[in-house]
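Task: sequence design from structure.
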């Protein structure tokens, strides 16, 4: 599996961040050794069957970007309508206090850079940072654990219900050379707490950076999370994300996900419905164009009684874009009464575009309702003809139909201003 690659050689020679905390420094070295020993995953592994990393393996990245702390940033790069609550901003992996809004936090909300939290009191974070359940192919989870020196710590006290959404911004900006940065996010909602969280990845320019983000999100009993993830990374960049949610008894989470940017984007989204009555819904769009490659891996595990999951995903590939979607649902033994559904519909707008979709369903319990399905097709010619017969140019007609195809995933997003903005992102013209 492991091959001598420039990427791995560069990583093995790089020093891990020194925190001054013995257990954390040892953990980072341990994860680095594990990554170097396993190397990058390849297409012989089922989880990476459709996403080749050969080109990435030939490149060397310098870790970190100290200049990012001084770089000028246009505020318009991360402004989103309907999102005006506390904000944490990172530029090329570096926390920017001058761009963040943390002066007045709602009651019950703790929001700070992870580096700051580790400096103040690291011990309460030891358990979550030490918990690594990396599976074969989770090389980037190990890489992130070895090098992530910062990130986000968000905790919401039991019963707290801030009215404004929390905004997390991760910007990619031009740098002198190819750099890599790694961030670790920890989110915990107490019993009965409610939160709207908007996670925005943005960037511009032709830089070919590598970013990894690993997020651990825990919802205690009765907590509710409305999570929006907008991915508009720079066109040349590589972005690998790993998100893990754990839902307690009667906890509810909804994730609206738009995967629009990056040259190569991979998102592993895993949810554990661990408490009786937990509910999880995902609504997502991936839209590779040009030569983009966007890979979404969704894994939902029902582990308790009477849990429910509902996933609606749309894929649109144009030009030489390639999309990959895997939606896996597992109903564990004892998870009786589970109700699971997953649908993935896809459009190919070009003969050179490709989408590989793979729904999976595995049931080990009784009295279960479960359904899943996937389709791949083209735009409806009759609808296209109708719009053109009304004088609408072909490109505009294609954009209108494509946007309409995707907007179903936004219908239940309660933030109207943000919903309108996200809908506009789905209507943009493909690059020339």
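Answer:
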């Amino acid at each position: 599996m492991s091959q001598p690659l420039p990427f791995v050689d560069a990583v093995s020679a790089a020093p891990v961040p020194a925190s001054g905390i013995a257990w954390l420094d040892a953990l980072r070295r341990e994860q680095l050794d594990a990554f170097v020993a396993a190397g990058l995953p390849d297409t012989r592994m089922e989880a990476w069957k459709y996403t080749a990393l050969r080109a990435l393996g030939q490149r060397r990245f310098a870790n970190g970007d100290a200049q990012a702390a001084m770089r000028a940033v246009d505020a318009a790069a991360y402004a989103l309508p309907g999102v005006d609550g506390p904000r944490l901003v990172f530029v090329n992996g570096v926390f920017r206090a001058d761009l963040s809004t943390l002066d007045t936090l709602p009651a019950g909300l703790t929001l700070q850079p992870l580096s700051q939290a580790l400096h103040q009191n690291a011990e309460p974070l030891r358990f979550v940072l030490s918990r690594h359940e990396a599976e074969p192919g989770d090389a980037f989870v190990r890489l992130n654990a070895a090098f992530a020196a910062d990130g986000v710590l968000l905790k919401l006290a039991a019963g707290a219900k801030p009215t404004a959404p929390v905004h997390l911004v991760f910007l990619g900006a031009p740098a002198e050379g190819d750099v890599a940065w790694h961030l670790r996010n920890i989110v915990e909602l107490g019993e009965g707490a409610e939160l709207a969280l908007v996670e925005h990845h943005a960037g511009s320019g032709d830089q070919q950076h590598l970013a990894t983000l690993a997020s651990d999100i825990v919802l205690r009993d009765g907590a509710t999370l409305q999570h929006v993830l907008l991915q508009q990374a720079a066109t040349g960049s590589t972005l690998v994300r790993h998100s893990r949610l754990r839902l307690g008894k009667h906890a509810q989470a909804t994730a609206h996900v738009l995967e629009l940017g990056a040259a190569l984007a991979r998102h592993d989204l895993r949810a554990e419905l661990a408490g009786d009555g937990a509910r999880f819904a995902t609504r997502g769009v991936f839209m590779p164009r040009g030569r983009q490659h966007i890979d979404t891996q969704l894994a939902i595990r029902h582990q308790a009684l009477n849990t429910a999951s509902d996933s609606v995903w749309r894929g649109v590939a144009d030009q030489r874009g390639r999309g990959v979607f895997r939606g896996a649902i597992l109903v564990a033994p004892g998870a009786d009464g589970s109700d699971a559904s997953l649908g993935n519909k896809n459009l190919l707008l070009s003969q050179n575009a490709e989408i590989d979709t793979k729904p999976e369903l595995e049931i080990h319990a009784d009295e279960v309702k479960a359904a899943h399905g996937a389709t791949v097709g083209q735009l409806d010619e009759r609808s296209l003809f109708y719009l053109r017969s009304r004088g609408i140019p072909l490109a505009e007609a294609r954009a209108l139909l494509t946007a309409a195809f995707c907007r179903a995933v936004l219908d239940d997003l309660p933030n109207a201003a943000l919903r309108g903005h996200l809908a506009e992102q789905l209507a943009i013209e493909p690059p020339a």
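The CA atoms of residues 60 and 219 lie 38 Å apart.
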